[in-house]
Amino acid sequence: MEVFLALEKNFYFSRMLASFEEHIDKHFPFLRQARLLIAISGGIDSVVLARLCDQSGMKIALAHCNFHLRGADSDDDEEFVRKLGTILNAPVYTQHFDTRKYAAEKGMSIQLAARELRYAWFGRLLGEGKGAYLLTAHHADDSLETFLINLSRGTGIEGLSGIPAVNGKIIRPLLPFSRETLKGYLLEQQWTWREDVSNSDTKYLRNKIRHQMVPELKSLSPDFLKQFGRTQQHLAECGLIVENYIEGLRKDLFRQEGDRRIVAVDKLEQLHPQETCLYYLFREFSFPVAEIQKLLRAMSGKKITSEKFIMVRDREHLLIEPIAQEETGASYFFITDDIREIGYPVRLLFSEGDNDVINPGNGVTIDKDKLNYPLKLRKWEKGDYFYPLGMTNRKKLSKFFKDEKVPVLDKNNTWLLCSGDAIVWVIGYRLDNRFKVTAETVNTLKISIHSEAKNEN
Amino acid sequence: MEVFLALEKNFYFSRMLASFEEHIDKHFPFLRQARLLIAISGGIDSVVLARLCDQSGMKIALAHCNFHLRGADSDDDEEFVRKLGTILNAPVYTQHFDTRKYAAEKGMSIQLAARELRYAWFGRLLGEGKGAYLLTAHHADDSLETFLINLSRGTGIEGLSGIPAVNGKIIRPLLPFSRETLKGYLLEQQWTWREDVSNSDTKYLRNKIRHQMVPELKSLSPDFLKQFGRTQQHLAECGLIVENYIEGLRKDLFRQEGDRRIVAVDKLEQLHPQETCLYYLFREFSFPVAEIQKLLRAMSGKKITSEKFIMVRDREHLLIEPIAQEETGASYFFITDDIREIGYPVRLLFSEGDNDVINPGNGVTIDKDKLNYPLKLRKWEKGDYFYPLGMTNRKKLSKFFKDEKVPVLDKNNTWLLCSGDAIVWVIGYRLDNRFKVTAETVNTLKISIHSEAKNEN
């Protein structure tokens, strides 16, 4: 993962081309010989990238996605890119997507859907030999915006280390340059571009960050982007050192027998700092660190599961195995932020930004921002309580089941969806009042029970 | 270094005391038995800290600094703290400082001077047995503010890892709590406090961050401070892992003979990631990483110095020794951001925020924010050029010396102050135009030649 420093602030726009070529020759000399696919929207950043590559004598082709999200504007963007291809004498590839439909089907946000569609298509183009590398126009301001978004969501060192300059066949050669520099050069060269109207809309998180927060941050120091670039490079390198260190630990600690990984509890107990070491050591299995820590103190036989793995406390060891779906006897199941569907122990579908009111027996719509991931599915335990929807006082779950006249067998087959220690939903019965959608809710999450019987597809 | 998580956002102020006591008992149980010195200004944060400790039954004394920076207001603060001492039946220690004079003498900012005076006095109080620990009222918002300040200045992982909860005898038990929580509890308890008028003045960096940036950041996510606390804890732990890793490297790489440290160049060349490894390995000597990297590729005999050390390339090794002041033959001298005075090879004094116009032969006043630290002192080299003050074109240094009719001997004895590759000041002759003070200058730095002959003290 490489991050490059932002250039001097007294940057003369007319020196942009020379700086760009220096940057290419120093870090990506192989781009000079190859056919390059430029991911192009028609906006300032990607137009400058395509034109700089052309001015540098590189062989380019343009790849444009039409997401059909802004009506005629989307088609005008496509037309603009086609004309640019003619001017630059470069092949143009375009692809049309029904982004809204795809997002709805996958239960994901429009932005995420567009991203998934875009990179899948770029991958196909590379696979078909339309280019040896894909170039994107991410720049220094994008890195700062991503940093702030990740900061607001809670992230580790990876999320703060910047957008990688090289990621497989994807290269980002504009990362050292600021948005201001790119725009200045474009204006100086009198190039045209397409304004993306959604960009000036501050209702989206990224636009709020771009138009309100980033200018404030830059005003803190005359060299802010440059200093920030250094910080990101340092963090990225610290991240590599941590990976090296953990790799050494992993070799010492884990023993493999077939599909099973075995690790001694006493060695995990001695790790320092424990939380971060456990996080990296077990990251591939998607167990929450706090639950691993509980397992370190648990009795033999205690189990937890993630989407694909089960971990069992077995005397002085932890055993980790891939789940054989039918036979898991685990009592806890974890649901991470990116999961859209689970099949066991209850079949649940998750869709974000979906406000449909649904039958409380079949599903709930909740305030997503109140959740702490990963969510946990478990059976009820003695002493459990929650705040039934519409009530401000807590109620013991045993009392709730009694009042609702739930048969013992059903009660013992009922799953609870939990966020941290709090019950979010007594599945099939009642939502917790603390997680309901209110006037202040920004992001919603719909969770529906999807039994085979009810599935009409 | 410990960082604790911010509490739930649906925090009831009346639960503050219980949460505070839980936090004390979990992380600092030893505070229960000791006499505690509370660093108290009279503002909300320190008043809440003192009163919480009192409500929890801890034995406290109050330590108040009167910096005499706000006239009668400063004395009223002191009076307020004395009365609070009577109410809480706690001893009150106060100290008066002539902060402005101290700052002027030391050539440092008022804030830095106040900090230095404050902690020196606290140290004396602890030394005299007035308390076993010093408690300060830093809270979650302070951590976020410090993070942003460090981000704007360029920092490594340490600068992003938060204010330490324990630092020797100094304990900060309010770090998990937000400013809002502390203020809410204070209002609920109907306690009085002293408003610090300088706090609402946004001309200072920290106040700009506090009143403009932090509210924006918090609005990005309903749980921002909590997520941010997690991120900081993770970064602090990654920092520890990096330290562990580097400690292992250091043992492998460095050999000591008397005062001399010896390290093989080929082993340094193999380090990955090189920049961060070099940074931590050589941090104690204050050599800039870029210069160490140049020395890795330099010929035998090449030398660099920092304030206290000299590093020499000696065939396949680097040798590092403490400087014997008189005998250094190094060609480069580095000046870090915190140095206020150097004695060799030229005697220079540095004072920030000082706008006195001075004789260009004896000193210069420059735009500090245009400097990249560490600065470098070196002799002139063939091909050197700069932008003499008042000129927009560059001029070769050889031509400059010729035009100024500088004798050969003086020319060869002239030192250049450099920032990165740029010459800032041909010492004793001319400032570079790029570094002059302009209407946009925010921070100034005065550098004066302080020859023994001119020194009248």
TrEMBL record, chains A, B:
CDD domains associated with the record: TilS_N (cd01992)
Residues noted as binding ATP in the record, renumbered to the chain: S41, G42, G43, I44, D45, S46
Swiss-Prot/TrEMBL catalytic activity: cytidine(34) in tRNA(Ile2) + L-lysine + ATP = lysidine(34) in tRNA(Ile2) + AMP + diphosphate + H(+)
Enzyme class: ligase
InterPro entries on file: Lysidine-tRNA-synth_C (IPR012796), Rossmann-like_a/b/a_fold (IPR014729), TilS/TtcA_N (IPR011063), tRNA_Ile_lys_synt (IPR012094), tRNA_Ile_lys_synt_N (IPR012795)
Compartment list: Cytoplasm
GO cellular component: cytoplasm
EC numbers: 6.3.4.19
Every Lysidine-tRNA(Ile) synthetase C-terminal domain range: 375-447
A single GO BP: tRNA modification
GO molecular function, one term: ATP binding
Keyword terms, alphabetized: ATP-binding, Cytoplasm, Ligase, Nucleotide-binding, tRNA processing
NCBIfam families: lysidine_TilS_C, lysidine_TilS_N
Matches recorded under HAMAP family: tRNA_Ile_lys_synt
Function: Ligates lysine onto the cytidine present at position 34 of the AUA codon-specific tRNA(Ile) that contains the anticodon CAU, in an ATP-dependent manner. Cytidine is converted to lysidine, thus changing the amino acid specificity of the tRNA from methionine to isoleucine.
Notes on the domains: The N-terminal region contains the highly conserved SGGXDS motif, predicted to be a P-loop motif involved in ATP binding.
Family: Belongs to the tRNA(Ile)-lysidine synthase family.
Protein name: tRNA(Ile)-lysidine synthase
The organism of origin for this protein: Sinomicrobium oceani
